Amino acid sequence: MGTLLKLNQVSIDFNTRQGPLRAVHHINLEIGTGEIVCLVGESGSGKTITSLSIMRLTDYEGAVISSGELMFDGHNLASLSQKEMQELRGKRIGMIFQNPMNALDPLFTIESQLVDSILTHRRVTKPEARKLALELLQKVGITEPEMRLKQYPFELSGGMLQRVMIAIALSCDPELLIADEPTTALDVTIQMQILQLIRELKDTLGMSVLLITHDFGVAIEMADRIAVMYAGAIVEQGPARKLITAPEHPYTQGLIRSVQSYHSHSEGLYTIPGSIPPLQELPTGCRFHPRCAFASERCRQEEPVLALTREQHQVACWNTAEAGQAFAEYATHKETAAPINNLAALPAEDDLLVDIQQVTKTFPLRGSLFRRSKKAVHAVDNVSLRIYRRETLGLVGESGCGKTTLGRLLVQLEKPTAGTITFDGQDVSSLSDREWKELRRRMQVVFQDPAGSMNERWRISEVIAEPLHVHIDLNEQDRMARVKETMKLVGLNPDWHTKYPHELSGGQLQRVCIARAIILKPSFILLDEAVSALDISIQSQIVNLLKDLQRELGLTYLFITHGLDVVRYISDRIGVMYLGKLMELAPAEELFTRPAHHYTRALLDANPSMDPDHHAQSSISDIELPSPIHLPTGCRFHTRCPAATERCRTEQPELREIRDRHWAACHHPL
Amino acid sequence: MFEYLLKRLSVSLLVVLGSMTIVFIIVNVLPGDIAQMLLGDTISTEKANELSSNLGLDRPLAVQYWDYITDVLQGNLGSSYVNQSSVQHTLLINLPSTIELTLTSSLIAVIVGILMGIAAAVYRDSWIDSVIRIISLFGVCTPTFWIGLLLIFVFSVHLHWFPAIGSGGLSHLVLPSVGLGLSGAGMLARLVRNSMLEVLHKPFVRTLRAKGIRESTIIFKHMLRNAVIPAVTMAGMIIGEMLAGSVVTETVFSRQGIGKIIVDAINAKDIPMIQGAVLLTSVFYILINLLADISYMYIDPRIRKMLRPSTQ
Ligand code: SF4
Ligand code: SF4
């Protein structure tokens, strides 16, 4: 296998007002012909800017390749002019990006964007290009390709758009495809379809793929080789399988243990302490040393470089022997530890806190001037759900399933179209404003985007103290004492109370949001994708914090997310939603080990695992999610269900208890 | 789409009616006896009363209003108090010259504004950007009459390149159009620069580069089209501004046109003429905005399809 691309000692700097800022430092990376290499790293690791540098798109992002060579088939890409690069881009190297929803020009049709790309690099006539465009759409598995060609980007779903992006990237048979987080913005069942497509196309076209991802699960699914980046440097790289089973760099080990501990049910998730340093404040010596359990004096002084430790496997660490040993011990211990699966350990179902009864929420579509539209989006359709005191109820589902709307209904951010919601015996919709305000003290919310949910001009102490102003009167001193006490509780240094939000990292900001939520000592917290945007090493810290707080303060959680691993770990029971309907409700372990609904099965199958022997798969057909305006008759899932029968198409299944505390809405449960 | 247009049109008609009413109220509650003013102070009250009844000014306001509206609906704008000539006729004769000025100044505003905006965005933070910023600031902040006087001073009094005042051929049009167009160009340039910069950071621009599309194509075909969407609504407003600005500019340059008619009519308290001219301008103003909305739909497929009855 020949080498197609070789990055040799490449460094990339951002041009800032204070001078150049090193984003990527002396990295070496090789991609062979027909190989899939995954670049794995958390945010701020420099993986995206590395991928842009190969296309020399860094020039447009205020960054420069300050040293090193990028050898692509005998040319040093770093020394080509933009003009020469233009010839290469889209022709020999194709690229797809993270969010397909905004990666295409909204004002041009799919056809025109495909044809442009073909005509730029191929000597064909316009009609020929049109024919090629159609063939390309067929090749990437788009349904009704003729119609799609005439459509505009906003008319296609995310999954379809990513297929279009792939079609564009492949339009000139490139030798290298760079995919920067291609599935991060997509739902898990769609993610699997896209990954499968990339792999199939790679095999048939014989191209190489550089896949950038933050998700080890995706990397294991796809990669021949994996390179792990941390704070601008590659710390470890080697053949995928060995890298996962026997990582030698403490950072890689930490990440893998974090991910795996979601499945282990040990007391608390494994976490890497601290957070990724900002580029301006890189530590001396090994850039990981402030967070490393094996750090020695040498690590603080001298920077380790990548060195071969075993066949094709390079690590940048001074203490690989020790670290490798420790991981081996962990691995054997893990094998022997049996997973717990104990229904008796669940919280008692006698102390009802939240009772959602037959709640429906429809959003009417705006009609025209002359006739009222009868159409409506059925966001939540006749859902009944009970949450018991001190339990965590997880709610999962893909985008548009109604999980977020259900949460908003619960805290009265939205009024139900039908049905009742009772909180601690009180019907929330019948409360007066004063009674509701009183009740609201006891139900708090934490959202996904911590920075967006606070006023950036307020000090941390003001952000956290905000509910105190609204709900109770305290004098300045007592309030400050309460704030500091709460900060300690969520693991924030109380001396930071004078800081502003922009001075904190994402993980710290989420702690601030949690502090704000618990300062009034609520009994219930709605966590809406509260940890979804966080890097894995930070995510596990926050999940641990949430668990600790629950124990200490006797909290009840409704945990809404699309992340299957997290929800399994944190929840006592889990509800699965699909197109506004509750499809399945079961204790967490039961749901994951013995799913009864075909949709749940499909979700679990599509979830990339950390097991290199187990491949995630897409067990449902490639059909897109139906629109919530034109819902399928009968079972909502029948258009995609592999077990659908005639009955499923006509008769809507009711939610019924099929096993002990295991409910499913399916005519033919698994 | 058709429904939307119908809706917009009916709203527009209401606006026209509204502006007619407001003008009617304003000119009719002006202090002083109109007939007396028309005839001058030396004339006796009887004479004035006679004129009042001739002109129908002694009838109740509601009746006058009703007559006025029905007349307009029948296409009759009345006749001037000053020289009995037909208002329609006077307006029609003077209309072309105002349209001419509005069009040329709008053209200057749009072309110069968009080009300056693009240049400023492409060469952002360079001297080109700074120069353009100063020009736009000047255009936006300086009153049009002052720019007009300045232009007359420099280009006709000193350089003798163009005639200072009056109407006539193309040469008479240059200074007024430039003077008027500059303020619009300034506004547009700032808007286009900002929206170009916003588009520059849109992920789809990165995709286009990754496809190997030429930078000039990216700028002029893709970025510009996305960037002008907010500018189109603004352009509608700007053309309206140009129309309004021509009132002042026509006076400064002593040009023939609706603007001059309005000023003269106000001075002479020639109510039918004022009403007619204002009606005409508001109709134009509304038409222009309607046009802007339609072109907006044409450029942005998202809006176009939203308005089309769902086919699903
Ligand atoms: S070099 Fe030292 S600090 Fe860095 S990862 Fe290895 S042991 Fe840890
Ligand atoms: S009811 Fe039918 S279509 Fe729905 S999940 Fe069960 S088997 Fe599939």
Automatic annotation (TrEMBL), chain A:
Domain ABC transporter: 5-256, 354-604
EC number: 7.2.2.11
Record-stated family: Belongs to the ABC transporter superfamily.
Pfam families associated with the record: ABC_tran (PF00005), oligo_HPY (PF08352)
Record key words, sorted: ATP-binding, Cell membrane, Ion transport, Membrane, Nickel, Nickel transport, Nucleotide-binding, Translocase, Transport
Cell compartment(s), UniProt: Cell membrane
Record-linked InterPro entries: AAA+_ATPase, ABC_Ni/Peptide_Import, ABC_transporter-like_ATP-bd, ABC_transporter-like_CS, Oligopep_ABC_C, P-loop_NTPase
Listed GO MF terms: ABC-type nickel transporter activity; ATP binding; ATP hydrolysis activity
Example GO BP: peptide transport
Name of the featured protein: Nickel import system ATP-binding protein NikD
UniProtKB/TrEMBL annotation, chain B:
Keyword Lipoprotein: no
A GO CC term assigned to this protein in UniProt: plasma membrane
Subcellular location: Cell membrane
Keyword hit for Signal: no
InterPro entries the record matches: BPD_transp_1_N (IPR045621), MetI-like (IPR000515), MetI-like_sf (IPR035906)
The organism's place on the tree of life at top rank: Bacteria
Membrane association type: Multi-pass membrane protein
GO MF annotation list: dipeptide transmembrane transporter activity
Sorted UniProt keywords: Cell membrane, Membrane, Transmembrane, Transmembrane helix, Transport
Residues spanning the membrane: 12-30, 101-123, 135-161, 173-192, 227-248, 277-299
ABC transmembrane type-1 domain location: 95-292
Family label: Belongs to the binding-protein-dependent transport system permease family.
Stated name of the protein: Peptide/nickel transport system permease protein
Organism this protein belongs to: Paenibacillus cellulosilyticus
